[in-house]
Structures are given as structure tokens and as C-alpha cells.
User: Fold this.
Amino acid sequence: MDLNKAMIIGRLTRDPEIRTTPSGAKVTSFGVATNFRWTDQQGQKKEQVEFHNVVLWRGLADVAERFLKKGSIVYVEGRLQTRSWDGQDGKKNYRTEIIAEKMQLGPKTSGGSTASGGSAATEQVSAEQPAATEEIPTIQISNDDIPF
Assistant:
């Protein structure tokens, strides 16, 4: 049995790039940064940042285009895929991406952070669903509900 699954929660490192294939399918890509924090044996706090490339197709691409921007918090679930191409210099280049199957938008911020309380908006969309055309429902969350 094989399993190819990636799940990340992080912040967008750039605005989503939206493209359309010749067949008319919408595709969006963006970067997500995730942080890993720990305390070393000397008691010093350490942090390591990882950067991930994310690709969304069709309905998910529509949602990302409408609601995501640099700095947005997002949960992405999908599969890893590595593609390769020959560069102009003749070298083979590789890029590993998360091909998203599900996505959940993080707390909606309006100029500031929702970490101080207040309302936040979330929406979960999967690749099997068409893109949502309604406004994102507003729900109440507490700081304990946020995993970062």
C-alpha cells in the first residue's frame, strides 16, 4: 500500500499566481512558509522555517484567487509531486509541489490580527466540490482553537 499525503498550515509568502491552461482550466500557485520551534539542550529557543510550493486547480484555484493574499494563513492538504525541466543552461531543474486536494482558509484579518479575540472566517473546500460563490460564513473562535 502506498500513501502520498501532505498537510501544512502556514502563511502565504507571495500573492497567488493565477493562470489558465489552453483547455480553460484555472490553476493557481503560491508559496507557504511553515515554522518549527524547539528548545535546544542549552535551553535556547530555536526556529526553522520551511518553504513549500502549492498548486491548486479549478474550484480551489477560484477560492484562492478570491480570498488569499500574501500573509494569509491557510491549511492545505494534498499530495507531493516533483516535476523536472531542462533549464536554458542545460541543467536539469526539479521542483517539489503540494498538489492541493483540500484547503481551509485561516482567520480573516482586516488590517490586524484576530489573535486578540473577535470573529474570524473560515471556509473548507475540497477538489471534488465546485468553488463557493457565497460569502464565507463567520464563526466565533478562541485563541485556543488556533494551532499556531
Remarks:
- The helical segments are 58-67.
- The chain has a mean pLDDT of 81.
- The beta strands are 6-12, 17-20, 26-39, 45-57, 73-86, 92-105, 119-121, 124-126, 138-140.
- The chain is about 5% helix and 50% strand.
